């Protein structure tokens, strides 16, 4: 989720940290006041901060994750969409720099929002979607780092509040290139499959039902998630969707095992950093590196070089971030960053240890 703004970087605390009710400048018992039941280990951050993005991606890479699915709100000059797009552009830059992969999940609910505000005519819904996907095709789909499936760029759409099934069919038919399109939960007519997402009212039972239903489709994207505990009701912005318990890490272990056992070509981790819904596997004050350590064990456990990667190495990106924030030697830290990205952990440790000593 590229939707966080922090006062030190953007000049204000964005809605996703505050939900108009919390003040991240306030500390209570050593905890930042955030619109979340949990706290990121590095504190509240800005999604356009290149060093935070580097930390996120290197953590993913060390845990065995290949890339990111970016929640993209399009190009319209409306609400915070321009800010989200700029953060997405920076994220893509870091993905390419560190040799990772990315794909887009299009929030087509933005089209309905534009129509509701009389910024888009009802008759322009499909043409607007086509123009945005064509922008993706020109600027991102052709990149070597973009995720493809069966030779076509992968595109997801979130929710059911945007284009209808028939509108998605019309939109994809108007594109000059084929797209490997996935809808949420259930396969739409023009989709090659669907991706899973937590449903609090059903919990793990829906995961198993999704996997059974998906056997009928050409492809599917199962999801692994640690919990679901949203903050909407506490913030007064809406009713809670309900909850899925963390169960001392069992929820993540069970959903990840089910996803991996499915042998699907793509698996989505839900989520890296949706703090407002409590689904983050990004290291937190409450859970530390627990979920990433299990992920690393499952994904790296069968690699030939697995013995060279330890759970302790997951702490190296944080060490790099701290040194960047302290103003350590930029060239040396860049060397450590590239070494981490390449898997040369011995060299990365040497550089980071030396820089840490020089800072004392």
Describe the structure.
The chain is an alpha/beta fold and 360 residues long. 41% of the residues lie in helices and 12% in strands. It contains 14 helices and 13 strands. Strands 3, 4, 5, 6, 7, 8 and 9 form a 7-stranded mixed β-sheet that branches. A two-stranded antiparallel ribbon has the order 1-2. Strand 1 and strand 2 form a beta hairpin. Helix 8 runs parallel beside helix 10 and helix 13 runs antiparallel to helix 14.
Number of helices: 14
Which structural class should the secondary elements be placed in?
alpha/beta
- What does the overall shape look like? globular
Number of strands: 13
SSE string: HHEEHEHEHHEEHEEHEEEHEHEHHHH
Largest sheet: 7 strands, mixed
Proportion of residues in extended strands: 5-15%
Whole-number radius of gyration?
20 Å
What is the share of helical residues?
40-55%
Q: Cα distance, first to last residue?
A: 35 Å
The low-confidence parts are none
* Arithmetic mean of pLDDT: 95
Write the SSE topology.
Layout: H1 7-10, H2 15-18, E1 27-28, E2 31-32, H3 50-63, E3 67-72, H4 81-97, E4 101-106, H5 109-116, H6 125-141, E5 148-149, E6 152-157, H7 165-173, E7 180-184, E8 193-195, H8 204-213, E9 219-221, E10 223-224, E11 228-229, H9 232-235, E12 243-244, H10 250-261, E13 268-269, H11 290-300, H12 316-325, H13 330-342, H14 345-359
Parallel strand pairs: 3-4, 4-6, 6-7, 7-8, 8-9, 10-13
Antiparallel strand pairs: 1-2, 5-6, 11-12
Helix pairs in contact: 3-4, 3-11, 3-12, 6-7, 8-10, 10-11, 12-13, 12-14, 13-14
